[in-house]
Amino acid sequence: MIIYIFIFLADGIYDNLTNKDIIKIIWTCLRKYNKKNKNKKEVTEKICNEIINKSVEMGSGDNLSVIFIAFDNFFNNSEKIDEILKKIENKNCDLMII
Questions:
Q1: Contact 50/25 with Cβ under 8 angstroms?
Q2: Could you give the percent of the chain with pLDDT greater than 90?
Q3: Secondary structure of the chain in the HEC alphabet?
Q4: How many other C-beta atoms can be found within 10 angstroms of the C-beta atom of residue 58?
Q5: pTM for this prediction
């Protein structure tokens, strides 16, 4: 399964968060907010806010910008979130953030 998302992050996000942290935040937010019948714009907005809030919580304070672009297959795979998060934890999947 390939799910394409594009995420552009300012350098302040990476002061305290790893790629794995960011991916976990994204999928956890999808699980949390996609079930509440929010529209896609609201879900992506929540994801961006969660990444920024977690960065601030971890001590970052400079250059905290996030641009998040998701395609339909991202939203349509919410039933597989637990499986995806487990693979991330077990390092059993490919993560690519460029």
A1: yes
A2: 28
A3: CCCCEEEEECHHHHHCCCHHHHHHHHHHHHHHHHCCCCCHHHHHHHHHHHHHHHHHHCCCCCCCCEEEEECHHHHCCHHHHHHHHHHHHCCCCCCCCC
A4: 12
A5: 0.79
User: 7-42, pLDDT tens digit by residue?
Assistant: 899 999 988 898 888 988 998 888 888 775 668 888
Place of tokens 């799910």: 3
Report the pLDDT value the prediction gives residue 97, as an integer from 0 to 100: 44
Q: What is the CA radius of gyration of the chain?
A: 13
Tell me which long-range contacts 71-80 makes (C-beta under 8 A, separation of at least 24): 71/3, 71/4, 71/5, 73/3, 73/4, 74/3, 74/4, 74/5, 74/30, 75/30, 75/34, 75/40, 75/43, 77/1, 77/3, 78/30, 78/31, 78/34, 78/35, 80/1
Query: Do residues 46 and 29 make contact, with C-beta atoms less than 8 angstroms apart?
Result: yes
